[in-house]
Amino acid sequence: MKSLWFAAIAAATAMALGPNGPAQAAQPILIGASLAESPPGSVVQGTEIKEGLNIMAKMINDKGGVLGRPLKIIYQNDQGIPSQGQAAVTKLITEDHVVAVTGSHQSSVTMADIEVAHRFKIPFVNTNGWADSIREKGYPEVFNPGNYNRRVVEAVVETIKEMKLKNVLAFAENTDFGIGQAKGIANAVATELPGVKYHYEVLDRAGKDFTPAVLKVKSNPPDMIINIMLAPAAYILMNQLYDNNVAPTSKTWFYDAAGDTDNIDFWQNVHQAAVGMIGFGLYDPRMPMPELGKQVAAQYQKEFKRPPDRLLFQAADSLIVIAQAIEHAKSTDSAKMIHAMETMEFHGTRGAFKFSDKPGYTYHQWIDIPYVTYQITALNQPIADTSLVQLPDKPLQVDKLVKSTK
């Protein structure tokens, strides 16, 4: 029997997550979540993902749960450290006996986490690990409904091409995500834009002062500087680029390829340094969204009194993948869940999708995940008020970009 929850939104999302009636009396289905709740990991990302998972779990449980059972999420703090991530996932699987694991949001940690999931053959839904090497492992247990580095590379290379830039520098953090994306851009530029000079410099993600690297390019600034660092290091870099009149300026554009502009603490840390910045975005309220996405956004706004961001939807969709796979398989058996994930179509907050079975960086990946490009044009500007220069599957509108007067 299809659930009451399914009936309420089936027209928009085609979801089926449990039979009619409350699920609270039945034995819960345990889902593990490993994420950063303390430094040195990205606590702001961990917080947003936890809130997204909780909102979606409550929505599912309020409409009957999955197979008549409520979902219960068990959290473990990985601190953004690979070894802690492995310990967290091991505990979730061997001691808490979860049927699946999700929540991971930093690539180096995700790379460590998936080794445990693969060893125990437990479904693992990657929420925000962008490194292509995660997919290239080819582990059948690992599924990726979030963004991936090669998708950002496509956006960056298109931007460089359409803006007719000739000299580009990237600052990348010393992680699988940072170095992987920087190298990906290098390979793509060499192949597709042979007339462009591109190079990157690797910085320590735990660093507190990047002035030497910034001053090194001040005398001969490039046409664009690309940020491939996560907060809080990214905030330090952005401020030091601005304070030293390197970027954004009338000479040099600044492009955020790490999604830092989405962070809830972005403006309180970056201030004037962000004005003029071009951003790769995985969520914008002007993007087309299914009814479920609108419902999740409204619930988040109601609970937290702030606009939603990409991590909310990525977390919600991570849980939806697990819930719909269980419903489709009519079982919490790992092999049956994995088979369901490999073969079915999912209906999430950002649209309908299937996972690719093509080997390489697209393995078990939602390939055509939607993105936008926007430019921040004023201090403390909400994403909804930025200058939207590219909608999903549309060309970049270069004429909308405004150069800094600094």
Description:
The strands form 3 sheets. This protein has a 7-stranded mixed β-sheet, with helices on both faces. A 5-stranded parallel β-sheet has the order 2-1-3-4-5, sandwiched between helices. Strands 11-12 form a two-stranded antiparallel sheet. The longest helix has 20 residues, at about 45-60. The protein has 13 helices and 14 strands. The chain folds into 2 domains: about 5-145 and about 290-355, 3-Layer(aba) Sandwich (Rossmann fold), CATH 3.40.50; about 150-280 and about 375-400, Response regulator (Rossmann fold), CATH 3.40.50.2300. Helices cover about 40% and strands about 15% of the residues. α10 links the parallel β9 (about 255) and β10 (about 280). α6 (about 150-160) crosses α7 and α12 (about 310-330) crosses α13 (about 335-345). The chain is an alpha/beta fold and about 400 residues long.
Unreliable stretches (pLDDT < 50, length at least 5) are 1-24
Instruction: Give the distance, in angstroms, between the N- and C-terminal Cα atoms.
Output: 63 Å
Q: Which radius of gyration do the C-alpha atoms yield? A: 21 Å
| Basic shape | globular
The mean pLDDT is 93
**CATH homologous superfamily (4th level) name of the largest domain:** Response regulator
Number of domains: 2
Number of helices: 13
Structural class: alpha/beta
Major pleated sheet? 7 strands, mixed
Name the helix and strand elements from N-terminus to C-terminus, one letter apiece. HEHEHEHEHEHEHEHEHEHEHHHEEEE
Q: Strand content of the residues, in percent? A: 15-25%
Number of strands: 14
CATH class assignment of the largest domain: Alpha Beta
CATH topological fold name of the largest domain: Rossmann fold
Helix content: 25-40%
Strand order of the largest sheet: 7-6-8-9-10-13-14
Name of the CATH architecture of the largest domain = 3-Layer(aba) Sandwich
